[in-house]
Each structure stands twice: as structure tokens, then as C-alpha cells.
Amino acid sequence: MEVTAVATQGRYDSWDWVSSYLLLYSDTGRVWKQYRHEDGRFVGNTNSEAVVQNKLSHPVRTRFLRFVPRDWNPSGWMGLRVEVYGCSYKSYVADFDGRSALLYRFNQKSMSTVKDVISLRFKSHQAEGVLLHGEGQRGDYITLELHRGRLDLYLNLGALPKVYGRVAVTVGSLLDDQHWHSVQMERFNRQVNLTVDSHTQHFQTKGEGHSLEVDYELSFGGIPLPGKPGTFLRKNFHGCMENLYYNGINVIDLAKRRKPQIHSVGNVTFSCSQPQLVACTFVSSGSSFLSLPSAASATGGFSVRFQFRTWNPDGLLLSCTTALMWKEYRSVSSLVQPGDDLHRLNVKCSSPGHRVNDGLWHSVSLDTRNLQITLTVDNEPSSAIELWEQLESKGSFYFGGCSAMNCQRQTPAFQGCMRLLFINRQPMNLNHVQQGLLGNYNELQFDTCNIRDRCLPNLCEHGGRCSQTWSTFTCDCSGTGYSGATCHNSIYESSCEAYKLIGSSSGFFSIDPDGSGPLGPTQVYCNMTEEKVWTVLAHNSTAPVTVQGSSPRKPHIMKLNYSASAEQLHAIVSGSEQCQQEVVYNCRKSRLFNTKGEFYFPLNVKLGRDEATGEASCPGVQQCSCSLEENCIDMNYFCNCDADADAWANDTGVLSYKDHLPVSQIVIGDTNRTGSQAVYHIGPLRCYGDKSIWNAASFYQESSYLYFPTLQAELASDISFYFKTSAPSGVFLENLGLKDFIRAELSSPSVVTFSFDVGNGPVVLSVKSHLPLNDRQWHYVRAERNVKEASLQVDQLPLRFLEAPADGHPRLRLSSQLFVGGTASQQRGFLGCIRTLTINGVSFDLEERARMTPGVSSGCPGYCSGSSSLCHNRGRCIEKSNGYVCDCSQSAYGGTTCNQEVSVSFDMESSVTYTFQEPFSVMQNRSSQASSVSTESSSRAREDIAFSFVTSQRPAMLLTVSTFSQQYIAVILAKNGSLQIWYHLQTDRSPDVFSPALNNLADGRLHRIRIHRVGKNLYVQVSREAIKYNVMFHTQNHVPQPLNLYLFFNEVSHHEWELNAM
Asked: In terms of domains, do 437 and 313 share one?
């Protein structure tokens, strides 16, 4: 039946009920699979009489259900009454034995379709096999195939050769688990949706073809070779298919009724065979094991054979005590190794990219007979060593781990699944083990392989690469431009204005205008030589272009391509205060408009998403600048070029209407007459200002708030803003759901709190400052929550973070409006100013919303609230009663506005040492933890280092940072003047050495170095060339609180440095 909901109740008139449970299902009463939904365990009862119903987020078709109690009434016992809701459905089943297929033959020679719908359900015994195939003589083909436990779709509509037109899409994972999986492929012209279970991939085919032309037949279950019965081109499907429909045609029903359209190859039956492959799951990495007795071998020695699947890179597979040694069998990345003090065997996967911890089933065979040890993995070549005497086993074989009494291992216990265990060629009955009739076990689950793919769907954002173990997943963000546990945070600033505020000078920079949003970073030039910071984006036609011979029917067309996409350009333009682009048009007998100002089609400029003509700086004005300034050479025309003179004329203007920017295309159509010619030049797009940085609102009443649409942040959210207040407490923002919520608030004069609940119970992160935060000065807050962790940053205080539970609720479900500056209850509202509110890369326009809200005003009073930067280079602006002062303590610059460089000249053998002092807030953060925070660290793995230097000496030591635990960071110039960065984070291994700049930097010129590390990713910028260097560390450890910072000018070798650093 198709089950849609389940309900539970306790034992009648008792204290017995189940408060949470797992739900398993099976077709045969064996080989169970856990039903997984986003809320983890099912919520049960709180008393014996009430009925608690749980609706299934996706229905399951099954014959058997198993309820597994996990928690129950501590004052009573387990008591369970259940009810199942659902309906029956009709099933058409075909069984394929791996050497069979069904052929659906067309009534005509070929079938050409522009729309296809193919649906089926299948369960497979193997990770490989063809489900569907069809092809045509002109190159069209479609193949649906299981490969390595995933479903691949290969499709070519024939407009291009097979090599170029083929599209390959992969969906699903672990599809060889002997459970039913649903597949649906929908195609309309070139648009295709492929869905496996609840995961959908949408894609578009290549080329211009719209129809799929298949000749003669479609094959299901395999690809028969024409003229050779029983021979197949690819590995056939081994398993069952159910309810197989091709464009509304029930293929299995036709086969069952022996209709002539269906031809059967091999042995196809219409009931599912049920192979008894009983598996067991090793749940714990510390205490799971299976102990089996060693059966006697008539030929001496012993042999062991089994299959396993896992995600973990290492773990104990098998151990036993022998007359010669203690043996362990480990899976480490792509190897399986038995190791001891005497011998070691290695078997490495020869297929590129294949590992034994890839989640697929792998077979292992060990044989110690005939005076040799032989190890075989899958179909790889065996590895063997000779023995002097026969090796015999003593006692039991331990699979996956060992008991505390018999354990001598150093390798972690195995987490994964095993099946088909043989000892001395005798099969081991796992049902007998479960019943206590054979061997012993601990922390095992029988009749199920409870492996899951934590990388499906991929929760790593922005192209991050997902890898996993049995209990968690990690994201590799290298090369993406993003960082964080899920690659959520951009490593780049959002604008040139933001780069100037952190002390950068003019140069090329990568900016990410929407931060953690979907748009990627783009490179721009930041001109910081003026008071205004200009963002400059060039295009592919920067030089003047000469045009002759164009007419309205055959115009000259130039499309302008920028380094940014259309979406990125729109984000940059809309986020800037002002943008402009210069258009220069030199003409000789090349007109723009006629005398009535109507469009004549000599010149057409495509502006942004609109089309306009001439050089209007305002929307709807089809005039050149000379007409607006009343200085055209002939005032009867709107443009100089419209005078149609034989002499050269010029119309130059600056486009500044943001909705028309940037210029994306220019069309010229009046240069085909005698003596007619035009030369045009389109300048780069130039923008200044960042509208979000000083977008602020002031809150005067505790009951007032600004409201915005519901926060869309189910899986990840990052919130950042600045605030200043004199009030002791107040809620910055809040968004509520039925049970879930998210909130940021000033909970006391010196404590900022970030709290949320995604269904695992309330979580509270707090940062305590050693100084009051209600001091009427600006303070920065950044809070983030994702499926891996949550964090809170306040000013420069140490980051607080909390890891999320491995199998907790991942989604934050909100339903109310987002309240800024207050709460839905109109209590505990914030009194003060909030500015630069950004959530998931979206900047909120507080000023606009404040203009229409009582008790709130747009902007924020005070000297330090304006858009002009009074304090430079990260200097902090502090309000005074009669003005302001700049606090340069967090800046590398000095002076009244933090814009004077602080430099020092070093002689040979001289140095400066700075000893770091931990602020009181750091010690407080380490000693007092929030009650709801169980796993937290006072700092994350990250560093920011920036400095400039001039030298002609090489080699030279520039800077080092050392800690109590003998860890260090060093920046040096090598003998050839190249820059080297040394990271020594693990004292038991040699340091990591990186060379981001290979050219000679000891050239007597000023060089700027900026080093930024987040976790395993290191980013280095050298001088203005904005060289970026990404590298993966062997460790993700953070550098502990630094002890000393050393500034050197020393000629020292690498070996000497190693001794000095120790």
C-alpha cells in the first residue's frame, strides 16, 4: 500500500507510552530501510490516551512497517498502539535477471517526438545496469543507466555529432540498496527534467535540435546486440521494474499480455525475486563489533571473505589472534591494508577516482593457506607474501571492531555495513547472530544497511565540493571565492567603497556585490585617488572605432561585453549612488536625428535593458548635450552631427540615468554616403558610492519597528549590521515561525545575543564585551547560522560559534514578517540607530521604510553617521558632545583621522616585539558559557595580516607570529627575493611553505602584503596586482592566542629560522 501518515497511542489506562520512534519499511519483511524526513525521529506521545499523528512528507509504498521506539515514559515502560493511513495502488512488475531485456517495437520505422514522459520505479541488486536505451540513425539517442549507484541520463537530439551534442546528467545516490526508487523524465523540446525520488535536475540539451528520433525500438533492461541473441553492449539491469510507462503506454502490462509490440529477450518474469542478502550496520565508531567463531579448516590456515560499504576513510574491518601476529585490516582512502610489525600487504584501486570509502559495496578476501597470505579487493590484482610456517587462527574473528577485553587496535572501529560473510568458505548466518545462536555483537543493526548520502542534496553553496564520513559532511571551498562551513560567505568585499574603508589603495579588486547571494565575484578597478571612490568596469571595445559604409539596412553593430554578467552589472549599478558612462561620437556627414527629433536610425544605442537613441542623460530626452546647453553648431538641430556638414563634428555626452546603464550595444546606420564617416568611443562604466553602507534608521519608541517580508533562510542565513544606542537592552531583529524563530538582541549593556530554534531546542550564542556597548558609538554585529554551525561576531571581539548536531533538524521554518528594531509583541524594542543591515547578501532599505513608520525616522543623527568617511583605514569614529575623535587603536595608521602611515626603519639585526594581551572579554568568554551551548570555541581558524615594506636585502625575515605551543607564522624573503609564507600549525610535522610571489621583491620599491586565512584556505594579495593564492592546509587547527609578534630585519637562513622559532 501507499502509506501517507502514521499515528500512535500509549497502552490503555497505563503509564506506558513511546515519546519518539523510528519508522522502517520493507517489501519482504527483511532488508529494512529507515524512513527519513527532515524532522529526524518521529514525535510520539506524552500520555497514554492522546493520539499523535505524523504525516509523511513523501508517501512510501511498502508491505511492511516497523516502529522502533527510541524514548519512552521514564516513569513507566514502552506502550504502543499504532494506526496507518494510506491507500492501495495497482502494481505492474517485471523482474530482470541481468541477462534479459524487454523491447518495445514501434509500428513504423522510427518514432520522432518533441515531448517525452518516461516514468518507472525500480529496485536493483547491483550498482551498474541499463534501464532504458533507444537510438536513431541520424545520431539521436537516449540512455538511462545505473552507474556506481547513481542514475545517469545520456541524451542527444541529433543536431550535433555525438561527441559534441551529448548531454550527461547524474541524479541520485546509493540506488543499489534493494529498495524501490522512483524515476521520471520529462522532456519538451530542449528542456528536460530528470527526477529520482525527491531530487530533480533541470537541464537543456545542446544544439538546435528539438525532436528525439528513435529507430525501430526502445529497449528496457539492457542493450541487445543486433544479430547476436543473448549478447548485450553494456551491463544489463539486475532487479525489478514497476509501473513502467513510456509516453502513457504501460510497457509491462503489454508484455504481461504478450502483445506483439513487446519482444522479450532472455528470462523476464512478472514477479520480483527476493534475494536474501542480509546486511548489518556498524553504528558506533568506538564500540560496534561482530564476533564470529573460527571454523576448522581441513587444509590448514584460514580464509575470510565479506563485502562492506562505508564513507569513512579508515576503520578496522577484521582482526584475529594468530600464532604469529595480531592482524588488522584497514580501509584508508583508496587502500585496504593489513598491517603489523612483521608484514604489510597493500591493495590499491587501479581505477582513477575510485576509492573503497565511496559508499559502494566492495568485496574483501583474505586467504592464509598454502604457506602464504593473499589479499584481494574487488577485481583488483591480489597481493601476497610467503610464510615460513602455516598461519592458524586462535579464538574468534572480530569484524568492525573488538570487545574491550580483546582489543589491541589503534585504528578506529568500522562504521558502515557488511554482508555475505564467509569463514573458511562457510557462510555466516547473521539471523542466527541476532537471535543469539551464533557469535556475539555490540551496537549493531541487523537486516538493514543504514548508510545515507549526506552530500545529496549538496548543501555546499557556490560550487563548493562536498565530501563526507558516516556522521557528517565537509565542504571544500577552495577556488570558489567563498569560505565558511558551507561556502556561504564571500571572501571579497561588496564594493570599492568597502575596500577603501579597510585601508586599500587604488588597484584591481574582486568585489561580490551581493555577498553570500547567488551572484559570484567579479573583478573591477577601484580608483581611490579622488574623494569619491570610483568603480570602473571596462568592456571589449575601449579603443575608438571607425565606421564607413553602414546603412539602415546593413548597419554597423557592436555588442559590448563586460567582465561581469548582466546580473552582476545590475547589482553594481543599483547598489551605487551614481553611475555614468561617456559616449563620444565624431561624425562627418553621419546623422543622429532628423529635424523633427524623430528616430532616423543612423545611431541606436542599447542601454542596459532598454534601447535609446542619441546621448540623452535623462529618460525620454532624445537630444544631445549641445541642445540642452544651447551651443549646437546649428540650432535648428538637436545634435551637432545632425547638421550633416562635410567637416568633422562631435557629439559627446555622459549617460547617467542608472536604469539605462550600462551601454550594451551600438548600431550605426548612416555612413554609406560619399564622404560619410563616423568614429565613436564608448567609455567604461563608472560608479561611485555604496548606498547600503550608510542606509540607517533611528528608533525612538520601544513599541516601534520596521517590518519586511519573511526571511528566506531555511538552510543558511547571515545577518550583519551596525548599531549605536544609549539604552541598556533591546531587540535588533526577530522573525518567528510556528515553533522556530531567529533573534538578535542587546540583552544587557555589554552583551549581544543571537538565538534561534530550528526544532532541536533553543540555541543561544552570546558575546560579552569588556566595555559597555551602549556608549552611543557604532558597533558591528555579524551572526550566521547554517546546517553545520552557528556563529556570532561583535566588533573585533573573539568569534563565538557552536556546531550543529549531526542529525538535527536542518531547516529554519519561519512564517511571520521580519521585525527590525522591535518584536511582534511590541515589547523590548530597540532604541537607537541601526545601519547597513544585510541578510544573505540583500541590503535592506531602512531609510525608505522608516519614512512611513511612526516612531522611526530615516538616517541617524551625529557626526559619525554620515556617508563621508571621517576616520580612515579601519579607524573608529567616536562621538563627542562638541564633535568627534578617531580611535586608531585598531588601525595600522595614526594621525587625527587615521590616514598617516606608521612606519619604522630597521637596521641589520634589529627587531620590534609586540606581546599580545588578551582583553578581559576574551577571558570572560572562555570561562562563562551559555547554558544551551555545549560545543563552542572562543576563536575560529582564521588570521588577517597586512603590512607594507621596502628593502633591497635578501634573504630577509619580515614578520613572525609565535605562540606558547611553538606554533608560528613567518613571512620571509628567500635568497632570490621571492616571498615565502611559513605556517607551522602542527608541532609534530614540518611547516607548510607557500610561495605566492616568485619575482624579486627586494627591489627597493614599496610592496603591500595582505594575508587572509579562513580554515584550510589561505588567500594572499601582493602589491596592486591583486595576486590571489589559494592553498589547502593539512590541518584546520587555529593558531592559539598569539604570544608575540616580531618585526625583523634579519639576514637569516631557513635552517636558522627553524632553530630560532623553536
From this structure: yes
